[in-house]
Design a protein that fits this description.
With 192 residues, the chain is mostly helical. The chain contains 10 helices and no strands. Helix 1 crosses helix 2, helix 2 runs antiparallel to helix 10 and helix 9 runs antiparallel to helix 10.
Amino acid sequence: MTDNAFAAPPVLEQVQQRSLVVGAVALVIGIAGAFISGAQPFFRAYLIGFIFWLGLCLGSMALLMIQHMAGGGWSLVIRRILEASTRTIALMALYFIPIIFGMHKIYEWTNTGVKGSHKQIYLSIPFFLARAVFYFAVWGLLIYFLNKNSKKQDTSSDIRLVTRMQNISGPGLVLFGLTITLASGSCAPGKW
């Protein structure tokens, strides 16, 4: 079979172009809304949208790791979809940048400061950014190695690749649980 056998149908190009136009119009409306209603509602709405799309990427990563740990053929049907979804992690890291610029509008603790030594350290802007870099690095590395080994599996019949993906997925699920819990506490706007 040729690579063309797996190519997307031509109609998808039209869908992609229309989606780009809709996205551009929505971006203009969002920016206009920021000027009309103020920056705080805009950035809070942006944070909700960001968390939604990041959740799809990370949820796909978790399901992918569960699939590797469970084994069997039950999930081979959705495996490529999950892998494709996980590969949006770099885009999600890029989409985190507006949150950095809007931190003072989203998180009250960035304006007022927090009293108490442990809270002062945890809720400082540099430590917040360091945690975000750490979370994206952990998620990105897990996704990279899972996708890399899966691609190798397409061209090789090496059974060790299955074991390698299981060895990544076991600790990966633990890391996922820890990082997603800590990250969700960092993303919640409001008072501490």
